[in-house]
Write a structure and sequence with these properties.
Length: 390
């Protein structure tokens, strides 16, 4: 059996960064920038006022000084003339500073009568002028790769970049397997349960930027599984869930091998999620996840998310582990690396009581996977441990 690290390295080899495509700015949120984007203009494109007030010469600013107002500069329409000695131009936020002026006295510091103003409160040294290009200038870059946030979208809009090169979304096909499963919303028979894994994994992987298709549930027969693999054709990553152990009804390995899957590995020295298999199936990477709901989700975090991120061209495929102090003791670990559902809060971290890999309610309560090395000894309250936030 291989380690989690070794498995991850082998899984990376099954996928590669996907080509870029162009999307409209309005559709680019959450996508991963594939090429640097370059500003084609300066912002602001002219020296602009940051306040409502009067533009005039800084050398003339003193208490009780009087100026004649000779015009207006508003956002979208500048004052065309020039400001001379003893003159001021009424100006509003975002409007171009007129020629000859280098200072804006805010209107609260003035008194106006007709077309005359007096400085009634001495302004500070702040000019209230935004220099041209202070935000960004022609040639300013946003560097790829980068997951585009709302803030990036706003910045690119201001840069007048309307079409955005992004990595194509990895297409992931999810296949639940098992005679006992029905879809959420259906009425289960007396011995049936609801397929949950595909839905949790879809949410997880779409959040990371994948395009996920949930295929019809495959029954525990060769032909049903073959049909499901057929429907998955063309996906970048095909994920089966369940049927991966050594029970009589665990057919995923046999069927995928029969379809030409070149196996990369089978089984990882970890808890939960030991019976994980992976390989190459035609043009797709294939991962066979264990069926237990918690195992499937933990493997989603540890293996599928990094694969998706790699296809998107993201450099850091796994967030760094964090550390926290135990608020409850831990017994010693067995021979496999253990990813324990845990709750992290301001007081520290504690592992959830029952780590049975079928308990989704415990997973939903957890916000961390506490990582234990093989044979990690007993740990007491206050000791530092590592965890992956989820
Ligand atoms: P298996 O690996 O097929 O033996 O599945 C292990 C356990 O996980 C069994 O109790 C299955 O009923 C359960 N299971 C398998 N697939 C799913 C799924 N998609 N959603 C929820 N439970 C599942
Ligand atoms: Mg099964």
């Amino acid at each position: 059996m291989i380690t989690v690290e070794e498995a991850r390295a082998l899984l990376y080899d099954l996928v590669s960064p996907l080509p870029a495509e162009t999307v409209k700015l309005a559709d680019a949120a959450g996508r991963v920038l594939a090429q640097d984007v370059v500003a084609t203009r300066d912002q602001p494109p002219f020296a602009a006022s940051s306040m409502d007030g009067y533009a005039l010469k800084s050398t003339e600013v003193e208490l009780h000084a009087m100026f004649k107002v000779i015009g207006e500069s508003v956002a979208g329409k500048r004052f065309e003339g020039s400001v001379g000695p003893g003159q001021a131009v009424r100006i509003f936020t975002g409007a171009p500073i007129p020629e000859g002026a280098d200072f804006v006295v805010i209107q609260e510091d003035t008194e106006r009568r007709g077309d005359l103003i007096t400085i009634s409160d001495l302004p500070g040294v702040k000019t209230n002028i935004r220099p041209a290009g202070v935000d960004f200038s022609t040639g300013t870059k946003i560097h790829a790769p980068r997951r585009l946030r709302a803030e990036d979208i706003a910045l690119m809009a201001a840069m007048n970049v309307a079409r955005i090169p992004v990595a194509r979304k990895p297409v992931v096909a999810l296949i639940s397997t098992g005679d006992e499963l029905v879809m959420p919303g259906e009425t289960p028979g007396p011995d049936q349960i609801i397929a949950s894994n595909t839905f949790g994994l879809k949410a997880l992987l779409e959040d990371a930027g994948a395009q996920v298709r949930i295929l019809p549930i495959a029954r525990d027969t060769v032909s049903s599984l073959e049909t499901a693999f057929g429907l998955a054709e063309g996906a970048d990553l095909v994920v089966t869930i369940g049927g991966a152990s050594v029970g009589d009804y665990d057919l995923v390995s046999d069927v995928s091998t029969g379809l030409g899957m070149e196996q990369s590995f089978y089984k990882i020295r970890m808890r939960p999620g030991k019976p994980l298999m992976a390989g190459r199936l035609g043009r797709s990477a294939m991962v066979g996840l264990p069926g237990n709901p918690v195992s499937a989700m933990v493997c989603g975090y540890l293996f599928l998310l990094p694969m998706v991120r790699r296809m998107l061209g993201i450099e850091q495929v796994l967030p760094p582990l964090q550390t926290a102090r135990l608020t409850e003791p831990l017994g010693k670990n067995g021979p496999r690396e253990h990813y324990m559902r845990a709750v992290r809060d301001e007081s520290g971290i504690r592992a959830c009581g029952d780590q049975d890999s079928s308990l989704l309610s415990v997973l939903a309560e957890a916000n961390a996977l506490l990582v234990r090395a093989p044979h990690d000894p007993d740990r007491s309250v206050g000791e530092e441990v590592q965890y992956l936030p989820i």
